[in-house]
Specification:
This protein is of the alpha/beta class. The chain folds into 2 domains: about 260 residues, Alpha-Beta Barrel (TIM Barrel), CATH 3.20.20.70; about 100 residues, Chorismate mutase (Chorismate Mutase Domain, subunit A). The chain is built from 13 helices and 8 strands. Strands 1-2-3-4-5-6-7-8 form an 8-stranded parallel β-barrel, surrounded by 5 helices. The longest helix is centred in the C-terminal third of the chain and has 41 residues. The two termini are about 45 Å apart. The structure holds phosphoenolpyruvate (PEP) and manganese (II) ion. Phosphoenolpyruvate binds next to helix 4.
């Protein structure tokens, strides 16, 4: 870990410390935006009745990508949320994007959780400004990932909130904006939240499968994947009547589909203490360890040969890259991969990585030899 990656956040609270009795994983559900008192109250009552939700979420102020879109009910929605809390006992989570939003949410204790949305997290000045207003507060703050797959920007936003004295922080993985249309509205890039957890070991990470999937029918598979990656909770958009929603209509679940999804999700344990299971796991891990070392040794041997090729090509004044050879490698290895049951695209990515390193190595050797006058420079 480089010094810029050093983790200062060693005393973060776990989700279990956030509220008495909140289980794990934490389930946060509610409409994308607050539209009317009736919509908010009917959704909250129906969600409370399911008994499956810890926290009711909604956006009073929605930062929309394009002008002219519905931006939430604003300040008047605070009163609606106070009613939700009093009537249902659900905790309340609200998105904040300015110090005024924070002040309004905290003034009468309306919000139990605040979250910073993807668009706001993308701007360090905004996060600094919010952090000042969050200074020393004792309620949890959720930091969504920025729109771009930039782990430093995400880590930086979390650090800014932490340096304001907030100890109850969680990251929310909601996927990253693509240019092309992809299966999901946002690219999952699951490796990024995994890397974030490596960098900040005590940080809870919650998944927002709704913004990630972008389509109600795809939300359950994303939620299951998040649970299988041992994420610490789900934040799901649920609307009393999704087809009438004023924002994100396509991805919001009805209360019925939410209930159905929750029943069908498999909540696996992060580990098990059964000795038989642990022994078997240990045995399989030994096998993986041994195979990994063999793979690394084989790659080192391959790179050794690449080095010799670099030398040979240099002495004969031949370019590092021969396109036909590279295309043949890609084709034959992907085909071989298929025979062994590996995904062709995986083998292709692997070969590209090996090839890149091989080119780097050959170029390095060629440059060294040329500098020492041991082979002709190409004219
Ligand atoms: C939201 O949660 O409603 C929202 C606006 O999400 P994001 O910031 O992830 O786009
Ligand atoms: Mn939304």
């Amino acid at each position: 870990m480089t010094s810029s990656e050093e983790n200062e956040m060693t005393d973060l609270n776990t989700i279990d410390d956030w509220f008495a009795g909140t289980g794990y994983p934490i389930i946060i559900a509610g409409p994308c935006s607050a539209e009317s008192e009736t919509q908010i109250l009917s959704t909250a009552r129906a969600l409370a009745d399911t008994g499956m939700v810890h926290v009711f979420r909604t956006g009073l102020w929605k930062p929309r990508s394009r002008p002219g879109s519905f931006t939430g009910a604003g300040m008047k929605g605070i009163r609606w949320l106070d009613r939700v809390k009093a009537e249902t006992g659900l905790k309340i989570a609200v998105e904040v994007a300015s110090p005024q939003h924070i002040e309004a949410c905290l003034e009468n204790g309306t919000a139990d959780i605040l979250w910073i949305g993807a668009r706001t997290v993308s701007n360090p000045f905004s996060v600094d400004e919010l952090s000042q207003s969050l200074s020393g507060i004792d309620i949890p703050v959720l930091v969504k990932n920025p729109l771009s797959p930039d782990i430093d920007l995400w880590t930086g936003a979390i650090e800014r909130v932490y340096r304001a004295g907030v100890k109850k922080i969680a990251a929310v993985h909601r996927g990253f904006s693509p240019f092309e249309k992809t299966t999901y509205r946002n690219m999952p890039k699951w490796e990024i939240p995994i890397e974030l957890r490596r960098r900040i070991p005590g940080l809870p990470v919650i998944c927002d499968p709704s913004h990630l999937a972008g389509l109600a029918s795809l939300v359950p598979e994303v939620a299951q994947k998040a649970l299988d990656l041992n994420m610490h909770g789900l934040m799901v958009e649920v609307h009393i009547n999704p087809s009438e929603a004023l924002s994100d209509a396509e991805q919001q679940l009805s209360v019925d589909s939410f209930t159905k999804m929750m029943r069908s999700l498999v909540f696996r344990k992060p580990t098990a203490d059964d000795p038989g299971f642990l022994n078997q796991l240990e045995e399989l891990r030994h096998q993986i360890d041994s195979i990994d070392y063999q793979i690394i040794d084989l790659i080192a041997a391959r790179m050794n040969v690449s080095g010799k090729m670099g030398e040979y090509k240099c002495r004969n004044n031949v370019t590092v890259l021969q396109m036909e050879r590279w295309l043949e490698i890609l084709r034959t290895r992907s085909a071989h991969g298929l025979h062994t049951g590996l995904e062709a695209s995986f083998v292709e990515s692997l070969m590209k990585l090996l090839h890149q390193e091989s080119i780097r190595k050959q170029t390095e050797i060629m440059n060294d030899l040329r500098e020492n006058g041991e082979c002709r420079s190409s004219e």
